[in-house]
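Table 4 source record.
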Amino acid sequence: METQHNPPIEHQNVPINHRGLHDFLYSSDDEHAPIEVSITPELANNGTEIIGLEAWSTFPQNAKIAGVYAVLDAERRTQHIGYSRNVLLSLNGHVTQNGEQKCAFVRVQAFKFPKRQEMEDLREAWLAELESTPPGNASESGMWASTVGEAVKAVMSETERQVYEEKKLKLRKAMADTTLSKESETIDATEVERRRQLEAAVKNDDWSVIIDAQTQETEP
């Protein structure tokens, strides 16, 4: 039995000047147990680590990363699995739409050379790992922006959204977007038809057509 007066053989006859080094080399295993590895940007984007969304967002390398991601709530239950060419932007949109409680943790697999089919395949593989489909991929899919454009709109104020739409319209005009004129013609034709129906309703005192049209617009 080891005592203060009878130490193990490896601790005997050690010069005082070497005690510090000796104690380090021969100290107990517990003192040299592996230190827990901190989450690095590489580990955070390997598709296996689940970390806090806020912590993930602080890595500068993740500012414009592309990949597949899973969003988990505060109880670590998967709420949505998606893919994006700008994961951070998409995640910010999800937080704005659904709140921090539903978007508390994240799992990300980065793609250095993102291809839609490869990311879709990985998303489906992640979904297949779960016992049930996350609400964000099923009944609540409308609350989870599926494109970067939708994510951008989600984090915008009403004023910013109007400016965004105006800029997009100007860009489409500058690019001579052929579908723009068709959209305009459709809108104009619809407006003309509405005015005709309104005039007919006033003249004939028959509002059934107007009421039916309004009912159809409000139905899901």
